[in-house]
Write a structure and sequence with these properties.
By secondary structure, the chain is mainly α. It is 78% helix and 2% strand. α12 packs antiparallel against α13 (260-272), α13 runs antiparallel to α14 (277-293) and α14 runs antiparallel to α15.
């Protein structure tokens, strides 16, 4: 048998195993040598970069498919945003989060509807006017040179990096929820200006007792501050202060319509924003009035106690305490009369 024929014959299984083990040992010895460490690290970095590039290409293909399934008018609205690589990645993330939330909300085994499938989770964000406006404002800032792609990417990724480094803790770096976006200072100012514009329009409507219109403006203002997150703790504190203020505005509309329960809920949400002392006093007073409207006199007095701890000399506190106590006594007297009448009816 010739040497060439021997080389062409398949190797026995045991020999293959031995060759593989020998190869593994050789590679481990190669990797253990200090002089080879930079080469291995470079190779690993290249593999990671290639994997990330492949993932980005797959995500971009999904986004392109989702955009192609939108109607032409909706696709046209997204055109300026899609020109920015960073905003494209943000759209991918938003669409993925919305689709995941929708899938979690569906009953087990239920398939997505045709309308929901078209465009994936992208359409849910596209039909939120505030989200779309902020995305388009970011695109305009990029085109005008007020913001660079690198600055926008750094602002959006900052909380994630802090979390990876164990720094995402209390007070220092705000972390966005899946349905929120971190904005750099320039865009945050524009968003808060839009919020204030809607609040001002709501205030004008409220003064004219146009409660439905006021509520619409206030809810638009609330949508802005619920969507954005500041880059720093100070900027996030400003967002939360504006959120508390507009929640109190909404609570005032509910009180004007005698929707006392909804007003109490708004005050609770405003207090959860940890507002400054002035806003907190306003929230406790407004909640006390709403509880008075619900005939929850004990709760109303407790709210006044909270307000008094913050601002002992506030003139409205004493007036409201008097009103609550008078209403409480009147309610008790009315109850006593009803009980007496029932007892008289029972006497033979």
């Amino acid at each position: 048998m010739s040497l060439l024929l021997l080389l062409l014959l398949p190797l026995p299984p045991l020999l293959l195993v031995l060759n593989r083990q020998q190869l593994e040992r050789s590679f481990k010895e190669f990797a253990a040598r200090p002089e080879n460490k930079p080469l291995l690290e470079q190779h690993q970095q290249q593999e990671v970069a290639a994997a990330l590039e492949l993932q980005e290409q797959e995500q971009l293909a999904i986004l392109q498919q989702q955009v192609s399934e939108l109607n032409p008018a909706d696709a046209k609205l997204l055109a300026p945003v899609l020109r920015s690589p960073v905003l494209r990645q943000l759209l991918i993330s938003l669409a993925r989060d919305a689709a995941a939330a929708e899938a979690a909300a569906r009953p087990a085994g239920a398939a997505a509807s045709g309308a929901a499938a078209a465009g994936g989770g992208l359409k849910a964000w596209l039909h939120n006017p505030r989200v779309l406006q902020l995305l388009r404002e970011a695109a305009r800032a990029l085109r005008a040179g007020r913001l660079t792609e690198q600055q926008l990417a750094a602002a959006l990724s900052h909380p994630a990096k802090a979390a990876q480094q164990g720094q995402a803790a209390p007070g220092s770096e705000p972390s966005p929820a899946p349905n929120q976006v971190v904005l750099p200072s320039t865009l945050l100012v524009e968003a808060l200006n839009e919020h204030l514009s809607e609040r001002h329009a709501g205030n004008q409507a409220y003064k004219q007792q146009q409660h439905a219109a006021a509520l619409q403006h206030y809810r638009r203002a609330l949508a802005v501050v619920e969507f954005v997150v500041g880059c720093s703790a100070d900027e996030q504190a400003e967002v939360m202060a504006n959120k508390a203020a507009v929640l109190l505005n909404i609570g005032a509309v509910h009180m004007a319509q005698q929707e006392w329960g909804a007003a109490v809920c708004c005050c609770d949400e405003a207090l959860a924003c940890q507002p400054d002392r002035e806003a907190a006093v306003k929230a406790w007073l407004r909640r006390s009035k709403a509880n008075l409207g619900r005939h929850e006199y004990k709760a109303a007095l407790q709210d006044l106690g909270q307000a008094q701890q913050l601002e002992p000399w506030h003139g409205e506190i004493h007036e409201l305490q008097t009103a609550v106590l008078q209403a409480q006594r009147a309610a008790a007297a009315s109850t006593d009369k009803l009980l007496a009448a029932r007892m008289l009816r029972l006497v033979p």
